[in-house]
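User: quick one, sequence for these tokens?
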């Protein structure tokens, strides 16, 4: 057997998992796709976020608490790579622009608080309290929810740092190596990729939207769908926004990232003027100062969603040793993927909450 574990997919989820497995002494190979293969990790918003996550599903709320509490440790470890990931955990806002949004947010935050047995910290702030913290906010924003547990990071730098960190621990990374076939043979798995044939005792599927098709080869029905989000970037501005918000955040370099659209358009990761206009208008409604800035870039990216929006962590029943790690919020969950998730993959004592993310919850 050449490797203990082959991780298929070198995005945020694969890189964090490979890093965690290598930390536990595993000999790991990461097989990744090509530059133009779909990649949510290169298209996301960079929030390390708990607000709203798991308000209707207690295990997910608890898992996000675990992940975000482990994040400072991950951030410290990644300093050894000398990649500046600009991680900050000062808190974050989600704005309300009318009474209905306020009422809905308040019940959502209260449900999330209950689902975490009071671990989730938050406050509802009216306009005048908000204005004291963010003077540039417009009067159209009637208030906001604030959680001191939210944060953000430079997502591209995070991906680079994870890749460097895993390779520093001896992980072999092979890009441009799309996997074509995975076959169980005599207690191990043979993986045929564009650059050769490799064997390992365990396989972890971290190929994002391609997990559905890869899982099928091994009798796993992994339900996964794409949801497009479009993102805008402005020119660099003087610092005016110390905290990230759900749809506007100022990066460490001064640019402002604007996003949070949700579209069902299959595997089309392009942009459209209509949606870009909508997200820009909402941002200007919140921060009038943005009305006169230049936009420098726009892109679309595909979220990896499961039917209930929660992760799927599942070991194949017909092919033990094959695992699916399929999820949205791979930035937020990175520290949990590099930590407790690897205990589960390796069969060590692991956190029981992980079992709540098996496919048993779907009727498939
Ligand atoms: C617009 C947008 C905003 C988002 N904002 C946030 C946010 O603020 N916070 C947050 O936590 N999450 C956010 N997300 C979600 C987050 O980006 C994803 O959860 C995360 O990137 C998923 O990582 P992944 O590694 O599973 O998938 P991907 O990044 O898609 O990576 C999959 C990898 O698998 C490879 N691959 C595919 N097929 C094969 C194959 N056959 N063989 C080998 N390799 C293969 C690909 O090349 C790719 O590198 C956002 C997503 C989008 C689209």
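Assistant:
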């Amino acid at each position: 057997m050449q490797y203990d574990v082959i991780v298929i997919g070198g995005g945020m989820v694969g890189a964090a998992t490979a890093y965690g497995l290598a930390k536990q002494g595993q000999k790991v190979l990461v097989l990744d796709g090509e530059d133009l293969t779909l990649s949510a990790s290169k298209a996301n918003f960079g929030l390390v976020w708990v607000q709203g996550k798991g308000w209707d599903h207690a295990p997910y709320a608890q898992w996000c608490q675990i992940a975000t509490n482990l994040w400072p440790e991950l951030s410290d470890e990644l300093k050894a790579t000398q990649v500046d990931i600009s991680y900050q955990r000062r808190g974050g806002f989600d704005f309300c622009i009318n009474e209905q949004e306020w009422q809905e947010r308040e019940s959502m935050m209260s449900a999330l608080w209950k689902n975490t047995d009071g671990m989730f910290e938050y406050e509802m702030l009216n306009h005048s309290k908000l204005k004291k913290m963010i003077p540039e906010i417009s009067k159209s924003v009637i208030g906001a929810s604030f959680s001191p547990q939210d944060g953000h990071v430079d997502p591209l730098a995070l991906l680079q740092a994870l890749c460097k960190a895993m390779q520093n621990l001896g992980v072999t990374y092979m890009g441009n190596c799309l996997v074509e076939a995975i076959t169980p043979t005599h207690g191990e798995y043979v993986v045929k990729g564009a650059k050769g044939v490799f064997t390992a005792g365990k396989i972890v599927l971290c190929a994002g939207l391609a997990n559905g098709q890869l899982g099928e080869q091994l009798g796993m029905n992994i339900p996964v769908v794409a949801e497009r989000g479009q993102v805008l970037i402005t020119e660099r501005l003087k610092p005016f926004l110390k905290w990230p918000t759900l749809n506007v955040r100022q990066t460490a370099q001064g640019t402002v990232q604007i996003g949070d659209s949700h579209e069902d358009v299959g595997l089309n990761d392009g942009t459209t003027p209509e949606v870009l206009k909508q997200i820009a208008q909402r941002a200007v409604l919140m921060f009038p100062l943005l009305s006169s800035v230049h936009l420098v870039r726009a892109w679309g990216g595909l979220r990896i969603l499961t039917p209930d929006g929660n992760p799927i962590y599942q070991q194949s029943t017909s092919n033990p040793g094959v695992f699916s790690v399929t999820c949205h919020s791979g930035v937020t969950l990175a520290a949990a993927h590099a930590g407790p998730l690897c205990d589960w993959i390796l069969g060590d004592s692991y956190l029981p909450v992980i079992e709540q993310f098996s496919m048993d919850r779907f009727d498939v």
